[in-house]
Amino acid sequence: MVSAATVRTVLGDVPGDALGVCDAHDHLFIRSARLPGQELADVASAREELRAFHALGGRTVVQWTPYGLGRAAGELAGLSRATGVHLVAATGLHQAEHYAPGAVEAVLDGLAELFVEELTHGIGGTGPRAGLIKVAGGFHGLDAHARRTMAAAAEAHHRTGAPIAVHLELGTGALDVLDLLCGEHGVAPRSVILGHLNRFPDPAVHREAAAAGAFLAFDGPSRANHATDWRLPDALAALVDAGYAGQLLLGGDTTTAQARSVNGGPGMPYLLRRLRPRLELAVGADVVRRMLTTNPAGALTVAWRAG
């Protein structure tokens, strides 16, 4: 059975035009073996971050935290109600190094079933339903773990219609991901969101990925090891000039407590407080509005299948 085309939020399915201004890639909660002691785990802090985002006009946040990394799925519905911000949760699996040894071995043989269950019935059986599948590539390549998780994501996509969001390590490997998901596994490019392209500002790769039909996410202020913020306006302007304005997404990708605005970092508000006006100077307010509203609605709206 196929349902009407909607976005699957933690409070239920809503039409795409209900999303408003969207942070298309961020995290309210995440715990990674690669970031010991930097967990996002505090509910009160997450609530304040959402309220700060809402105060600037933000109305939707897409949490890309997948299975096994402290999603706090049971907290998401309450946070959405308390702040007035739509939340979209993720299923999926990250790179192996983000998990403690032995943490995911039990689910590897049934990944597609796990993803479908969380998309159609709920995270953990009783939590909200996920609205997208998050997987990850490696640095300039795809290892066996990435190929396994992406094959499972493709199967779950075909069974449910869910979009697939891809962490590109330092922004690399976009074309390899499209070859695998779309070429080998038959996923429509428009169902794929390629993340972190701001971290690898190669205009030829950006344009080829856009020409294939995928959504391109430029998410998060620069970190010390990929200081590319200054290139972002030009990268987006080039894609807009080439006719790809309808495939561009913006996000914040807050992954540590120190990065939250309530703790003195840029956090979710940075997207609207600082990045939006910079990009409006480069491509115009109407195009930026499209990146924040129409485009994420298009990327996330699905004619859901029962699985």
Automatic annotation (TrEMBL):
UniProt KW Nucleus keyword: no
GO molecular function, one term: zinc ion binding
Coiled-coil regions listed in the entry: none
The protein's required cofactors: a divalent metal cation
Annotated binding of Zn(2+) 2, by residue: K134, H167, H196
Keyword Acyltransferase: no
Binding site for Zn(2+) 1: H25, H27, K134, D253
Keywords: Hydrolase, Metal-binding
Matches recorded under Pfam families: PTE (PF02126)
Cofactor: how and how many bound: Binds 2 divalent metal cations per subunit.
Modified residues (N6-carboxylysine): K134
Family to which the UniProt record says this protein belongs: Belongs to the metallo-dependent hydrolases superfamily. Phosphotriesterase family.
Descriptive protein name: Phosphotriesterase-family protein
Origin species: Streptomyces sparsogenes DSM 40356
Taxonomic path: Bacteria, Bacillati, Actinomycetota, Actinomycetes, Kitasatosporales
